[in-house]
Specification:
The chain has 13 helices and eight strands. It is of the alpha/beta class. The chain has two domains: 330 residues, Thiamin diphosphate (ThDP)-binding fold, Pyr/PP domains (Rossmann fold), CATH 3.40.50.970; 36 residues. The chain starts with 11 loop residues before the first strand and ends with a helix.
Length: 376
């Protein structure tokens, strides 16, 4: 890829090129030596199902069934490859676009739509899946992730040498979040405290409409060197390379060696959200360039060339994608609006005095309308 600064390919780790050909890398090849063709087919399946869900969700928002949707189109390899490098007792702090990560960790994607329909704060139990709630405030979750990682270290859950016990934290955010104070404070705190956290930047090249070239004059992974921790750039459309780099980073963090920054260079093929019009700030030639580097097509080409992607397997995955889309569609359209006062429930894990006070006021306010009807 042509370019300078943050969009150059300088130092980019790649194990599959955009035409699906294997590229050797002495440093990271050992971290994918365990992968079988079954594993790679599983990666392809997860990416394909994530995209089917994503496209259906976009359609539902366009039909007025969702208040908002945040597409992940084009970023499937960054999410699937990295998520497969995690395991319990690791903990994941996503932002708001990590649908593929949720899928890999076993969360039913159809069930998460309540948040986007405005019915609930979150749709899954973080303690059951090791995945914390989506954060809509850009970068706000980065200090939370570092704090959780630091607590794991203090509790002796890092660097013990016991693989069943040792864990680390992954914190996902985009290139735009790197301009936020919260993220920079998290980097500093993690560095000086040697916190077991991997900062995973999905550099999809646009913070809403602002390109990465307007946010940084150097690759974002170089932010790591500024606070004294390792930083790695990886081809975010290469699921194999993403898996290798993330696996290395997680082992680094779990063993007590401290934090890592990963910059996965990818491309947001869709809109930032369904309220965005990307045609206003990028060209069709740019979009075509990245369409030719589609992460799903790249792995599919590799598997097909090795005669490891049978037609019956592809047909089953296509059917599974349609079924996921159907369940998502029917779930969303079948939900009934609950009482408005439920917005006060589950804001905190335990009762909160201020929230209870606000709920009581709201109930009195609602009741006042009934009193007016009786007076008439």
């Amino acid at each position: 890829m042509a370019g300078i600064g943050p969009l150059s390919e300088e130092g980019l780790v790649r194990l599959l090129d955009h035409e699906g050909r294997r590229v050797e890398d002495a440093t990271y090849d050992p971290y994918v030596s365990h992968l079988t063709m079954d594993d790679l087919r599983a990666f392809w399946r997860d990416m394909t199902l994530t995209r089917a869900f994503d496209l259906e969700s976009t359609s539902l928002q366009r039909q007025g069934e969702l208040g908002l949707w945040v597409p992940a189109l084009g970023q499937e390899a960054a999410q699937i490859g990295s998520a497969h490098a995690t395991r319990l007792p690791d903990h994941i702090f996503p932002s708001y676009r990590e649908h593929g990560v949720l899928h890999v960790k076993g969360i039913d994607l159809a069930s998460i739509m309540g948040m986007w329909r405005g019915m609930e704060h979150s749709s899954w139990d973080p303690t059951a899946y090791g995945v914390h709630t989506y954060t809509l405030v850009i970068g706000a979750h980065a200090p939370h992730a570092v704090g959780y990682a630091q607590a794991m270290d203090w509790d002796g859950l890092v660097g013990s040498g016991d693989p069943e016990k040792d864990g680390a934290v992954v914190c996902y955010f985009g290139d735009g979040a790197t301009s936020q104070g919260d993220v920079n404070e998290a980097l500093v705190f993690a560095a000086v405290n040697n916190a077991p956290v991997v900062f995973f930047i999905q550099n999809n090249q646009f913070a809403i409409s602002e390109p990465t070239t307007r946010q940084s004059k150097v690759p974002l992974a170089q932010r790591a060197s500024g606070v004294g921790i390792p930083g790695v750039r990886v081809d975010g459309n290469d699921v194999v390379a993403v898996h290798a780099v993330t696996r290395w980073a997680m082992e680094h963090a779990r063993s007590g060696q401290g934090p890592v920054v990963i910059e996965a260079l990818t491309y947001r093929m869709g809109a930032h959200t369904t309220s965005d019009d990307p045609t206003r700030y990028r060209t069709t030639s740019d979009e075509q360039y990245w369409k030719d580097r589609d992460p799903i097509a790249r792995l599919e080409t590799f598997l097909t060339s090795a005669d490891e992607l049978p037609e019956d397997f592809k047909a089953q995955v296509e059917a599974d994608g349609k079924e996921l889309a159907r369940r998502t569609r029917e779930s969303v359209k079948g939900w009934q609006r609950g009482p408005v006062e439920q917005m006060f429930d589950h804001v905190y894990g335990t009762p909160h005095a201020l929230v209870q006070e606000e709920k009581a006021w709201f109930n009195r306010y609602e009741a006042s309308f009934a009193d007016q009807e009786v007076a008439k």
